Amino acid sequence: MKKVLAVCSFAVLALIVGALVVRAQQDKSKRPSPPATAKCELASGKTVTIDYSSPRKKGRNVFPDVVKYGEIWRTGANEATTFVTTSDLMMGGKHVPAGSYTLFTIPGKDKWVLVISKKTGEWGTDYPGEKEDLVRVDMKAGTSATPVENFTISFDKAGSGCNLKLAWDTTTAWAEIGTM
Fold first, then answer.
1. CA dihedral defined by 57, 148, 128, 51, rounded to 10 degrees?
2. Would strands 133-158 and 161-179 be described as parallel, antiparallel, or unpaired?
3. 99 alpha-carbon distance from chain centroid
C-alpha cells in the first residue's frame, strides 16, 4: 500500500511540476530572453513594428563569441524577429513594400548587413536561405563606451522616417528607414 501511495504521490508531483513548466513557457515575459517591441510612427499614421526576444549579455563576450562575425544571426532569441510595415519604405536605397517579414543580420566589426526575409513563421534559428531574401541592407556599425546588457532594437525619429538601431554589449548598428 505504501508503494502505491508513493507512486501516486510522485505522479501527482510530476503533473504539477509539468503544468508549472508549461505555464512558465506560455508566459513569455518569464523567459530568460523576454519579448520586446520597437515601433516607429511614420507620417499619416503608418508604422513599422519589430517584435523580438531580448537576450541578455550575462557576463559573456557577445561579439564575436556568442554572435559570430560574418555569419547569419537570428537578431534576437526564441521565435524569429518580425518586421511589419504598413507602408512602402526605402532602406539603404532599396524598396521594401508594406507587409510582414522576418529579420536576420550578418554582424561585422565595422559593418552589418540587415537581411529582410519574405518567409515568416519560422523559429528564430531557421534562416530560410538567400532565395527568400527580400533585400539586404548595409548597416553602419560602431562601439559604445557603456555595455548594453539586454539586446535592444529601437527607433530614433529622423525627418519623415526613422533610424533603426540595434544595440548589445558594446556594439551598435543602425540603418535609415525612409518613406516613399
1. 110
2. antiparallel
3. 17
Query: Rounded to whole angstroms, how far apart are CA atoms 61 and 46?
Result: 38
What totals of helices (H) and strands (E) does the chain contain, helices first? Answer: 1, 9
Question: Which candidate, 126, 151, 136, 132, places its Cα nearest to that of 56?
Answer: 151
Helix (H, G, I), strand (E, B) or coil at 144: strand
Question: Is residue 175 scored above 70 in pLDDT?
Answer: yes
Calpha distance 150→86 (Å, rounded)? 27
CA–CA separation, 136 and 105 (whole Å): 9
Q: For the segment 6-37, what is each residue's pLDDT rounded down to a tens digit?
A: 444 544 444 444 444 444 445 666 766 789 99
Residue 90, burial from CB neighbour count under 10 angstroms (0-12, 13-18, 19+): middle
